[in-house]
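testing teh design pipeline on a random one, pls ignore if ur not involved
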């Protein structure tokens, strides 16, 4: 039976996965409908070392299971059928959490309750813990084109680490940033099944997915294949904060960038893939403002970086400028950098002054969580936006700009003495999984 609309399907199937000559093929289907085949292309892939074969198969299984979220969400049927492998309880638990919370925003926007639909059933005993593989001491740094990953790059360079910048998909902007780092580069291709876009045109469910989790799974396969013992993401501690609460659930746009997923995923790797493979965030102890402060210390990337999400859309036109000036990411990054950069430098980066545009009042109100929840974007907490605005309110060069002037008159008087200072938000804090061999990076961010 061919399924014209995945929303009418009864089951979502993980059919099979295969790897050959640098290409991983991941196959899915709704019921007995046409197969959705995704391909991940690992360039110049070396021959797999025999000692890593078992770890590679486990990593490939995980990639198949996690990447399936891109397709499952098209129909969200009641039954999930894993035909390609047997799941133990820890694996099923990881997938249950990822699919439920990673699709939290998707479910909220589509008015769906996934709590009774997402069930990955364990079919195997708990796998024995794996041993170390004596992986080479090398680090993959996933590059996103924005300030965060470039801060990680500079920390690793200062520590003398053997690092390679890696990105997934085609992005001239990220490629330019990668070249600017001066580090070795690896660009992995991800080719989604064309059938998914056909389903979308027919009215399938669509929406936000936990891309960071998919990238982490791709890089796990790459780490075993190329020989790397560390995958250093650049997710700050505020990524763990929920965007809003709805129907008893906390909805976080950045769930797969948060501490809970990092801890679950990292622990799974060390028990199921390789005991010496570390996947973590190098910036976990930092707030968004602390990352912005570190980024502002060098002007090396001013002409190439961008955090504007419109550059990374799968379909539709992309902006000709690096910063569209209209999206929440542009607004937040401008505000976060403003306390730490000379004003002329920041205006050169963005092309105009976003804090002097009265039309952007609602956008900055949302960032400060003033009468509105923060946007469904990878932006910092409201408390950080308020602290940055309060700092600008004390500076003559910013006080008369429209957004700052309104903050002084309308919002600042309501904050009282409980609003933390900028300095309080710059101090490192909280848990992290940074491996011991990179502890010099921890010293550098204190």
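output:
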């Amino acid at each position: 039976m061919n399924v014209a609309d995945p929303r009418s399907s009864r089951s979502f199937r993980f059919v099979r996965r295969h790897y050959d000559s640098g290409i991983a093929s991941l196959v899915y289907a709704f019921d007995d409908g046409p197969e959705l085949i995704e391909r991940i292309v690992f360039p110049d892939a070396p021959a797999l070392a025999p000692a890593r074969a078992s770890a590679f198969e486990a990593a490939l299984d995980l990639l198949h299971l996690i990447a399936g979220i891109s397709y499952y969400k098209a129909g969200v049927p009641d039954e999930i059928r894993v035909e390609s492998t047997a799941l133990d309880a820890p694996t099923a638990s990881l997938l249950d959490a990822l699919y439920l919370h990673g699709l939290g925003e998707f479910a909220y926007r589509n008015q769906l309750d996934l709590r009774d639909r997402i069930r990955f059933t364990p079919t195997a005993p708990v796998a024995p813990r794996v041993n170390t593989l004596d992986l080479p001491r090398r680090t993959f740094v996933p590059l996103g084109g924005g300030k965060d990953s470039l801060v990680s790059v500079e920390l690793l360079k200062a520590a003398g680490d053997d690092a390679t910048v890696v990105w997934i998909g085609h992005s001239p902007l990220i490629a330019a940033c990668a070249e600017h780092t001066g580090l070795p580069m690896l660009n992995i291709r991800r080719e989604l099944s064309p059938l998914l876009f056909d389903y979308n045109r027919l009215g399938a469910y669509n929406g936000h997915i936990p891309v960071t989790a998919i990238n982490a799974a791709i890089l796990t396969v790459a780490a075993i294949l190329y020989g790397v013992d560390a995958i250093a993401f650049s997710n700050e501690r505020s990524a763990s904060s929920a965007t809003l609460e709805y129907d008893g659930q906390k909805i976080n746009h950045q769930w797969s960038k948060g501490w809970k997923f990092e801890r679950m995923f990292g622990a799974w790797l060390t028990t199921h893939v390789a005991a010496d493979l570390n996947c973590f965030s190098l910036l976990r102890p930092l707030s968004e403002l602390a990352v912005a402060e570190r980024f502002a210390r060098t002007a090396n990337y001013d002409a190439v970086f961008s955090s504007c999400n419109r550059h990374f859309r799968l379909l539709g036109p992309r902006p000709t400028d690096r910063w569209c000036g209209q999206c929440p990411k542009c607004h937040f990054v401008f505000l976060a950098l403003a306390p730490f950069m000379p004003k002329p430098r920041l205006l050169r980066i963005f092309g105009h002054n976003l804090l002097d545009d009265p039309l952007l009042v609602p956008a900055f109100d949302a960032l400060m969580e003033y009468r509105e929840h923060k946007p469904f974007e990878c932006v910092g907490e409201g408390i950080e936006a308020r602290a940055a605005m309060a700092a600008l309110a004390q500076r003559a060069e910013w006080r008369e700009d429209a957004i700052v002037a309104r903050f002084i008159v309308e919002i600042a008087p309501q904050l009282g003495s409980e609003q933390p200072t900028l300095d309080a938000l710059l101090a490192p804090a909280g848990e992290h999984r940074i491996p011991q061999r990179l502890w010099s990076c921890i010293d550098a961010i204190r």
